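User: Good morning. I'm curious how magnesium ion would be positioned relative to this chain. Could you predict the structure with it bound?
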Amino acid sequence: MTRIHLVLGGVLLAYGQNGPGVPGFGVVAEPENHALSVDRLMRYHDSGEYESQIRQVVNSAEAYLIERAEKSGGKLAAVFDIDETSLSNWDSMSGCGFCAYSAELKLYPNATAAVISPTRELFNLAKSKGVAVFFVTGRQEKQRAPTTKNLTDVGYAGWVELIMEPDGNKDPARTFKPRNRQAIESKGYRIVLSIGDQASDLAGCCAERVFKLPNPFYLVP
Ligand SMILES: [Mg+2]
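Assistant: Good morning! Here's the predicted structure, ligand included:
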């Protein structure tokens, strides 16, 4: 019996004789049942559509990177987000029914996120073209050691800088990330692309092109 069947069985048991066609049933419009939302996300992932969409976005990013690297010299840079961009938290996310990241951190060991292979390919392509890679992440400084270990363990190597939020930072990603891209450009780099899974990864200063990976699993404002 699937997860959905278990839940629906529980609902019918709870309501006894009540159901469609029974007076009083469905008087108010409810939001979609959480179990249905979870099932929809699981199917999006398990069908291969999620991976396929990541591949499509990365293909576009690679094409632009190649075009741009061949066009001019200078100090070129690429900015990568980490969670759901460079590393996948799929096991933790799906294991807790897509709970909040703060809850995931309490439930699951860190430093064990899986690689997102197309992004690692883009990362290595950037390096091969002489483009400096920066990670700009919403993870905080207290997570630096496990984050570095995790990135290294899955095959990322040779980045220029890992920029993390200060511990206790209250600035939203939408503010923190562009400020740090500006800081990268103030060091003389031209950011040719920025890639992330949240709109807040990509808003504001500074990148010639931004590439948005899919993430229907959570939202970072
Ligand atoms: Mg992310």
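Residues 74-212 form a domain with the Rossmann fold fold (CATH 3.40.50.1000). Residues 81, 83-85, 196-198 surround magnesium ion (CB under 6 Å).
Let me know if you'd like a different ligand tried.
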